[in-house]
Write a sequence for this structure.
């Protein structure tokens, strides 16, 4: 399957993982209320941390190893069996620690039924093996399967979640969604590979498994740990504000993440063949795509944060507005960080540098969490996240510049920002001085933003990605 189709399916898949929950979020946020939403997100942040420990580096390493072995069936069976066995051991350890933590920590014991549901999610995530299908580049299958299961999830939420006390049911449904995908995935995997205990070899997979796993764990200090720590030092309501504030950001960044995850195997192949110029050119195209997408989104969401929160969650979530305005610049910060790390340092196999940078970022996160969160609550968590990711971005950029002389495109960034200053002024006027209903204001502002962005990208910035599709249309009209 070609790169363009892979990018398309991966983008749809990644976006579906966020868009489908968003379809039900306006409903459940109103039915369950901010505190119960906070409880669900607090428990899920704890479970997600155990999932990160159980999965370690398999998401990245598994994709890389399967992609390299898929041409040889024996090698493929060996890598598949080895990764599954190693992942099974770490999952079992994580499950045991989760049980001990639930029995020992009062805040977890209070939600023990939901922690049991989370344990099911932990085991299901082991069987999900998305890394295997990404390595096989079978994005069409996993996209179709994911959409089918998520449609069932949406329908189930509207049927079974009816009042404020149904928050355990809502969380159970989110866990069963992972279980459904996992069962189908594991059965379907037999089409490509077989688990054979005789072929298990930990030597070839253990080092990247734990090295990249350390990176994943440390990186999560900026996201999952923030939610968990916020829940421990404040309350579930503040967790509800923070997770609501980051909901839209997560969905929008998922669009870009879907592209970076597909491009990584291609970048690795370019490096293997010493095609450095093509490698740099592909990174530049990713950067152009990021700037053209993230900057207008940041402008729009920052100015209309109040209206967006009201649309997504309804009244009672006003505390999410300021955190949302703080985290939205992460669209640009983390987006470019992913280009440097996922498309640059990881294909270059600079796993050690990635881990060191993430360790420094985690130290910054931990320190700022202890200083700010107890006083500033959800706003403090938002500030911590932005500061931490900025530190990791700077360190990663310095490393990449030293290795292959790829510098930060400051002039290109400033050019993009200056082009959107008039848009910011127009949207600011609409947000402040318009007496329209909030949804009417959002439609008007969104339409003007779309028209302005396309005009700027085509006529001023001359974005080659857009021109590639627009020029044939103009030629036909003429």
């Amino acid at each position: 399957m070609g790169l363009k189709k892979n990018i398309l399916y991966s983008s749809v898949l990644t976006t579906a993982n966020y868009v489908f929950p968003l379809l039900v979020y306006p409903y459940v946020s109103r039915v369950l209320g901010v505190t119960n939403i906070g409880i669900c997100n607090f428990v899920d942040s704890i479970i997600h941390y155990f999932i990160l420990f159980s999965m370690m580096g398999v998401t990245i390493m598994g994709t890389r190893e399967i992609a390299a072995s898929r041409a040889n069936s024996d090698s493929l069976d060996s890598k598949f069996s080895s990764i599954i066995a190693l992942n099974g051991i770490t999952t079992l350890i994580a499950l045991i620690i989760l049980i001990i933590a639930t029995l020992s920590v009062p805040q977890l014991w209070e939600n023990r039924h939901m922690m049991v549901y989370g344990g099911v999610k932990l085991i299901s995530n082991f069987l999900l093996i998305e890394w295997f299908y990404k390595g096989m580049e079978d994005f069409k299958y996993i996209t179709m399967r994911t959409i089918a299961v998520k449609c069932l999830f949406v329908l189930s939420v509207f049927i079974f979640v009816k009042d404020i006390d149904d928050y355990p049911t809502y969380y159970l449904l989110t866990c069963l969604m992972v279980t459904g995908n996992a069962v189908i995935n594991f059965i379907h995997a037999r089409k490509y590979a077989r688990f054979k205990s005789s072929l298990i070899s930990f030597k070839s997979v253990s080092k990247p498994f734990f090295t990249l796993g350390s990176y994943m764990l440390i990186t999560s200090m900026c996201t999952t740990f923030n939610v968990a720590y916020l829940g421990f030092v404040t309350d579930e309501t503040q967790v509800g504000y923070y997770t609501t504030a980051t909901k839209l950001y997560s969905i929008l960044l998922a669009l870009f993440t879907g592209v970076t995850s597909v491009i990584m195997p291609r970048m690795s192949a370019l490096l293997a063949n010493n095609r450095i110029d093509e490698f740099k050119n592909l990174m530049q195209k990713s950067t152009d795509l990021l700037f053209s997408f993230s900057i207008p989104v940041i402008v729009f969401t920052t100015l209309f944060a109040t209206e967006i929160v009201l649309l997504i969650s309804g009244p009672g979530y006003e505390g999410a507005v300021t955190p949302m305005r703080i985290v939205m610049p992460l669209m640009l910060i983390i987006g470019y960080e992913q280009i440097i790390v996922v498309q640059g340092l990881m294909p270059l196999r600079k796993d050690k540098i990635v881990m060191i940078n993430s360790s420094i970022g985690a130290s910054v996160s931990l320190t700022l969490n202890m200083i700010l969160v107890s006083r500033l609550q959800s706003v403090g968590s938002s500030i911590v996240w932005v500061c931490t990711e900025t530190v990791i971005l700077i360190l990663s950029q310095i490393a990449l510049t030293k290795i292959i002389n790829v510098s930060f495109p400051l002039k290109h960034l400033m050019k993009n920002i200056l082009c959107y200053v008039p848009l910011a002024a127009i949207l600011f006027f609409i947000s402040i001085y318009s007496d329209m209903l909030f949804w009417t204001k959002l439609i008007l502002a969104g339409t003007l933003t779309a028209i302005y962005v396309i005009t700027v990208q085509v006529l001023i910035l001359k974005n080659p990605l857009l021109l590639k599709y627009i020029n044939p249309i103009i030629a036909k009209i003429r």
User: Anything to note?
Assistant: The chain has a mean pLDDT of 81. The longest helix spans residues 351-404. The chain is about 85% helix and 0% strand. Residues 122 and 190 are 22 Å apart (CA to CA).
